[in-house]
Design goal:
The complex is a heterodimer of chains A (342) and B (278). Chain A is globular, with a radius of gyration of 20 Å. Chain A has 15 helices and 18 strands. In chain A, the strands form 4 sheets. In chain A, strands 4-5-9-10-11-13-14-18 form an 8-stranded mixed β-sheet. A 5-stranded mixed β-sheet of chain A has the order 2-1-3-8-6. Chain A has 2 domains: 170 residues, Rossmann fold, CATH 3.40.50.12110; 116 residues, pyruvate-formate lyase- activating enzyme, CATH 3.80.30. Helix content of chain A is 38%, strand content 21%. Chain B folds into 2 domains: 196 residues, 3-Layer(aba) Sandwich (Rossmann fold); 71 residues, no CATH class. The longest helix of chain B is centred in the last third of the chain and has 16 residues. Chain B has a 5-stranded mixed barrel. In chain B, strand 2 and strand 3 form a beta hairpin. Chain B has 278 residues and is α/β, with parallel strands linked by helices. Chain B starts with a strand and ends with a helix. The chains are: A alpha/beta (342), B alpha/beta (278). At the A-B interface, strand 2 of A face helix 7 and helix 10 of B. Iron/sulfur cluster (SF4) binds next to loops of chain A.
């Protein structure tokens, strides 16, 4: 159904609202952000979000928003496939399901199979659940886990709320992972060393080939600098690194560009990872995206996950580590190999 | 192909005439009209049972492909002022009996007004006690969707309903329906034309490539699993700009095949993988 000549409805021209979500301040905020959107009431967000046989490719030109109330599973323990940055109490939260960007390798495509987004409007319940956990132990919480919250911030205000909450809870450390280059967001957020803006960076060749709809490297670097100017200590994520043609050259140049235009002193730490995807998600994505070289690459299956062969993965990790060590100390570099060895 | 359902002939007559659909014997006991190329229309009869059973039987007979589309057209009673008259594209349909709702994707900009429809098994009369919040009432939409969802994904189903009355069914005649279906025909044609612009499914490999892979797999003594792997490697190669011919030449396969046994085939398969990812 996707075709350039078709005229699509605008992004978020349709907002599906769970009956229970009506009346929440966030529902009202989002609806007034899209005053002309069709509002359609549903009993459960799953009636839309989890319909069988949806097509990401068809929906991506005209995504819908779904506003819902999350009743359980507000905060989850972090996955072993993700960096924990040596944090013992690693959690993630799912205020939003799905992302407005269109990265070919994104596991959300395998998990959800839809381009529509769910925003859970009962923010207070997420905050309360975090408080409950904080009574037991410190918490390291990834906010942008099944989404990228930064490009949605003007619409939702969720990050500001979480940042304020983090500031007032000393045992809480939050990470906001993003590819977004909106610099204004960081100017509006309360500054804290316990709020970590984490920018995912890739060479422009990878961005234009695989990370559709995301800003280019230069703009992302500017956003890193803006966050740092406000007083944050940004994290840089070189994850996933792809062994595309001439990858050594591309990543060397990118690291140089990033480091010379930011400065190692403003960087909190960096992470390195290569592409990895669970068998089930890969199966779905290969079927749904037959033209994606990124997905169709003949990865190796190991322990239920597809990724590069051990040798190539190690080569990439070592290469990236060595390149980064030209600018920052080893103790600031986190790799998934480190996590696996712990 | 666009598959069209309508309950009654007067609701579909304008479309049948415009697209020059001819009556055919495709489904016993039901009127089916087709041009054998782009559009086939079935008259389901009125009511949920007819709508569901005839839609299911009709689509099961057709060879529905990934590029095909379902268009359901018909009339409905208006339930509120907002949907007092006109042609609507339906964004939600709820089966009154089961309470179950269905939602086609609303991706294409049609310029039509949107509304929701409540589908019941009896004729609606003004004052009947039914749930609030719906724009229209009919006796087919949800049933058609329920049957058609086995054949079509939500982004390839479109439901159009024009208002025939406001809960006064006794006042609606066949000629009213015919007049309204004529009146709204241009909008229906616009949607049909828009839908037809949709990109057709393409494949990465040509028919020749596919046949060649089967031959190669035989020569390499591939198991079914190995054959799938080989298919994947060649597809990936083509996506990155390599041709099957380049793989064969690069690895001198003509001189090395047929393989002695499966083990030798495995080695060659591994070499193909390394060749395409280098
Ligand atoms: S930015 Fe992250 S969450 Fe969004 S599509 Fe890309 S990989 Fe997925």
């Amino acid at each position: 159904m996707r075709s350039d000549s078709l005229s699509f409805n605008k992004q978020f021209s349709h907002i599906y609202i769970e009956e229970d979500a009506a009346g929440f301040p966030l529902t009202e905020r989002i609806c007034s952000f899209f005053p002309h959107a069709e509002k359609i009431f549903v009993q459960s967000y799953k009636e839309i979000f989890s319909r069988p046989r949806q097509s990401y490719s068809a929906q991506v030109s005209s995504r819908s928003l779904i506003l819902a109330v999350k009743k359980d599973g507000l905060i989850y323990e972090g996955s072993v496939m993700c960096h924990d940055f040596d944090q013992r109490w690693f959690y993630y939260c799912t205020n939003v399901l799905n992302c407005i960007y269109d990265c070919e390798y994104c596991w959300l495509k395998g998990m959800y199979g839809t381009a529509n987004l769910v925003i859970f409007v009962n923010t207070d319940d997420f905050l309360k659940e975090t408080e409950r956990l904080l009574k037991e132990h410190p918490v390291y919480l990834c906010l942008s886990y099944e989404n990228d919250l930064v490009p949605l911030e003007n619409m939702t205000g969720l990050l500001k709320e979480w940042a304020e909450f983090t500031v007032s809870h000393p045992n809480l450390l939050t990470e906001i992972r993003t590819k977004c280059a909106d610099r204004e967001i960081w100017k509006r957020m309360p500054v804290s060393d316990r709020v970590i803006p984490a920018f995912t960076l890739s060479p422009d060749t990878v961005i234009s080939a695989y990370e559709h709809g995301t800003p280019d490297l230069k703009k992302r670097i500017e956003a890193v600098n803006t966050a740092a100017e406000q007083g944050f200590h940004p994290r840089l994520c070189f994850d996933p690194v792809f062994a595309v043609k001439d990858w050594q050259k591309l990543y060397t140049e990118m690291i140089k560009e990033v480091m010379t235009n930011t400065g190692p002193e403003i960087i909190r730490d960096v992470s390195i990872g290569t592409f990895r995807l669970s068998r089930d998600y890969m199966k779905k994505m290969r079927r749904a995206f037959p033209f994606s070289a990124c997905v169709q690459y003949p990865y190796t299956l190991k322990n239920g996950y597809y990724g590069y062969d051990d040798e190539l993965r190690k080569t990439i990790t070592e290469f990236m580590t060595n390149e980064l060590m030209k600018y920052i100390s080893k103790d600031k570099i986190y790799t998934l190999e480190d996590d696996a060895n712990e | 192909m666009i598959y069209v359902t309508a309950a009654l002939y007067p609701e579909a007559s304008a479309l049948i005439r415009h697209f020059r659909l001819k009556k055919t014997e495709l489904l016993r006991g039901r009127d089916v009209f087709t041009d054998h190329e782009n559009m086939t229309l079935v008259l389901t009869g009125t009511g949920e049972l007819n709508a569901a059973s005839v839609t299911a039987a009709f689509l099961a007979k057709m060879n529905v492909s990934d590029d095909d589309v379902l268009l359901s057209i018909g009339s409905a009673a208006s339930l509120c002022e907002d949907s007092g008259s006109g042609l609507f594209i339906i964004n939600k349909m709820t089966d009154l009996n089961s309470g179950r709702s269905y939602y086609p994707d609303m991706l294409i900009h049609t310029g039509l007004k949107e509304t929701s429809v409540l589908t019941g098994s009896t004729v609606y009369r003004k004052g009947d006690n039914i749930p609030e919040g719906y724009g229209l009432y009919d006796m087919e939409s949800a049933a058609v969707y329920h049957a058609a969802k086995m054949f079509f994904p939500p982004h390839r189903m479109f439901f159009l309903r024009f208002v025939s009355d406001t809960g006064t069914p006794q006042a609606v005649t066949a000629s009213d329906l015919e007049r309204l279906s004529n009146e709204y025909l241009p909008a229906v044609i616009r949607l049909v034309e828009e839908v037809r612009k949709g990109k057709k499914t393409e494949s990465i490999l040509t028919k020749e490539d596919e046949e060649h892979i089967i031959q190669l797999a035989e020569q390499m003594k591939c198991t079914e699993f190995m054959k799938n792997e080989l298919h994947g490697y060649v597809s990936y190669a083509v996506l990155t700009g390599l041709s099957l011919k380049q793989i064969e030449e690069g690895l001198s396969l003509a001189e090395r095949l047929p393989a002695e046994n499966k083990e030798e085939g495995k080695k060659i398969l591994y070499e193909i993988r390394q060749f395409v990812i280098q």
